[in-house]
Amino acid sequence: MRIALAQFNPVVGDIAGNTRKILELARTAMAQGADVLVTPELALTGYSPEDLLLRDHFYRAIYAGLDELEMLDGITLVIGHPARLGNERFNAATVLRDGNRLGQYHKMLLPNNEVFDECRYFTPGAAPLVFEQNGVKVGIIICEDGWSVEPAAEAADAGAEVIVSLNASPFHRNKIATRHEVMRYRVQETGLPMAYVNLTGGQDELVFDGASFALNKAGEVVAQAAAYDDELLLLDVVDGDIVAANLAVLPDELESAYRALVVGVRDYIGKNGFPGVLLGLSGGIDSALTLAIAVDALGADKVHAVMMPSRYTADISVDDSRDMVQRVGVKYDEIEIWPMYESFMNALAPSFAGLPADTTEENLQARIRGTLLMALSNKSGKLVLTTGNKSEMTTGYCTLYGDMAGGFAVLKDVAKTLVFALCRWRNTQGEIIPERIITRPPSAELRPDQKDQDSLPPYDVLDAIMERYVEHNQSAADIVKAGYAEADVNRVVRLLKINEYKRRQAPVGPRITHRGFGKDWRYPITNRFS
């Protein structure tokens, strides 16, 4: 028996388009001798349709797609899709063969943590499904089912000789190795080989990295699809085991994070039909990395960078911005903001009389820049990319309606230390970021001689505290016990808490860590818990 794993990038809600893509993949698989085509989880609708799942006419479109797929002869299809039976909804996989529906499996374990909210929509399944192909009995599980013992064990008890797992497993750093490890446990427990197929592409804040694979009975990875690219991975089952096939080389940790960001930008812009992007270029490292990602995702012709200097902007910031845009070849403009700033200050002078200067004046500069970018966005239709990083989002070192103004926050889940590492990695692929941008001390350049570390702990300390508190749910006391200065820990935790209202108003951005400031971060704004 030959199985084809259809690793591809659906568009949420485009059921007709996804159906056409599956048919195309099925015909290609048939031409390569495949007996079975397995799609990822909810491949027919894309993952996740969220509250589209509550609409009656959504299911009419789903069943029209299944009817079309059912007409294909010559190959067995295992299609991931939402199903509705009476008043209940299921995360399902239907087996289609030569105009017949051989059975439908319902996902047993519904994740309701991190970015997942499946208990809101689905009823858990209660029974395994095993079908026969060419004398081989194939059991089905769906995503979360594979992260616990019972569903795979029930498939084995029902007579399965090989297990196929349909997945919509979003990327975070080190996720591929974790998938291999967890699925190896299922193989060891059942004694059965496993084929694992995953989605690719970006969907709002989620990025799906593909990297479908197969494990033989010994738990060895005997087939591996590429990360981030669409692919048909062909697997042969011989004498009850999956034999060795293509083994793609997987990216290392930095390349994987960078490519996830590229895919997130590419699909958010492309799937939503924006003609391109705008971003404010400051001569600093965050905007430089954002520009590099945008160009790699969309091409230079769809990217417009705008430098908006003030009297506090260093000459080298302007020089480095000009240098980088020449290297990447994007459209570039410079707009001096100081005359506008002075006009604002003159208008506000009566109200500010007798009051000392403070962050108000700094934030006003950021808001002028945000207004200019949004005006250019309105005129051109291009989406503004914000350039703030996760360290800034944690501590509130970002300005509402200023540098936070925009439609997609590329670095929202990228800590400052990772920003530096990604810039250095990107330059190994072709040096497009001027070295001085990477080596200069970071500064917002909103007042004379300003440096980020004037008012924050060193970024390696800040980011370590942030990772422990945000991503691993450690308490402040536990972080202090781990060796971090109590003053630094308390400061970071306090800043995190009082700036929740800002994060709630931030644009969506791609998630690349175990826990980002998106669907998997749900804290009350009004909150007195200490």
From TrEMBL:
PANTHER family (alphabetical): GLUTAMINE-DEPENDENT NAD(+) SYNTHETASE (PTHR23090:SF9), NH 3 /GLUTAMINE-DEPENDENT NAD + SYNTHETASE (PTHR23090)
EC number(s) on file: 6.3.5.1
Segments crossing the lipid bilayer: none
Sites where the protein binds ATP: G280, L281, S282, G283, G284, I285, D286, S287, T387
UniProt xrefs under NCBIfam families: nadE, PRK13981.1
Domain CN hydrolase: 1-244
Protein name as annotated: Glutamine-dependent NAD(+) synthetase
UniProt record similarity statement: In the C-terminal section; belongs to the NAD synthetase family. Belongs to the NAD synthetase family.
Positions contributing to L-glutamine binding: S169, K175
Residues that hold deamido-NAD(+) according to the record: N363, E392, K502
Pathway annotation: Cofactor biosynthesis; NAD(+) biosynthesis; NAD(+) from deamido-NAD(+) (L-Gln route): step 1/1
One Pfam family it belongs to: CN_hydrolase
Gene3D superfamilies, sorted: Carbon-nitrogen hydrolase, HUPs
